[in-house]
Design brief:
By secondary structure, this protein is an alpha+beta fold. The protein has 2 domains: 2-43 and 154-198, FAD/NAD(P)-binding domain (3-Layer(bba) Sandwich); 44-150, Alpha-Beta Complex (Polyamine Oxidase, Chain A, domain 2). It has helices at residues 21-27, 33-40, 84-87, 109-112, 116-131, 156-169, 185-198; strands at residues 2-3, 6-7, 15-17, 44-55, 67-69, 80-82, 96-104, 139-150, 173-175. The chain starts with a strand and ends in a 7-residue tail after the last helix.
Length: 205
């Protein structure tokens, strides 16, 4: 480890690695090449999220609910659209609404890589078609994840078996992440809480 550019060592009885699979793979490249290779080759696809804010009167849809998903058979260019301002207070100014749109994934990885302006244009076009939006957004913001959604393809169970073997081989070592026990935030939180409940509560300074 490094702090202020200087290396230092930390000794611990319990170590939880909750980093992305490719980061963990780099940490284990010398310790266990097979596990590192397996982790580093878990397929994952890019995802871009576009936040758009509109005046309420410019959106014909009532936005009454959580949001919407777009099945692949519909041929849309977005995976889904959430309506945060319908779910939680304070997500948009008075008289405005906020939408969060997901683009990319395994279905359309190339679209997630569009430049910001092109990505926003694509999203606004989809919102106009799907939600009766009649004006340009008054607010936009783009967030990107290069490897956002791990794919549990054939052979994934064997990859995870290598991690389980490492946890047995090195007691106190734990692997957590969306590449292992479910890709959703809910699953990651649940597994983290579950692991935390099993660890010793005493910490020695």
């Amino acid at each position: 480890m490094h702090r202020d550019g200087q290396p230092f060592t930390v000794q611990a009885d319990q170590v939880i690695l909750a980093a992305p699979a490719q980061v963990v793979a780099g940490l284990f490249a010398e310790l266990d090449a097979a596990a590192a290779y397996a982790l580093g080759n878990i397929p994952a696809y890019p995802l871009s999220i576009v936040h758009t804010g509109y005046r309420r009167e410019d959106v014909g849809n009532p936005l009454d609910g959580f949001g919407m998903l777009c099945p692949s058979r519909e041929g849309r260019n977005v995976l889904g659209i959430l309506w945060p301002s319908s779910l939680f207070a304070g997500r948009a100014p008075e008289g405005h609404v906020l939408m969060t749109t997901f683009v990319g994934g395994a279905r359309a990885a190339d679209l997630a890589l569009l430049a910001n302006a092109a990505l926003i244009d694509l999203v606004v076009g989809e919102q106009q078609a799907l939600l009766d939006v009649v004006a340009d957004p008054v607010f936009t913001r783009v967030a990107r994840w290069e490897r956002a959604i791990p794919q549990y393809v054939a052979g994934h169970a064997a990859r995870m078996g290598l991690l389980a073997h490492l946890e047995v081989q090195y007691p106190g070592l734990h692997f957590l992440g969306n590449y292992r026990d479910g890709v959703s935030v809910e699953r990651c939180w649940h597994k983290g809480h579950e692991l935390g409940a099993t660890l010793p509560l005493t910490v020695q300074a």
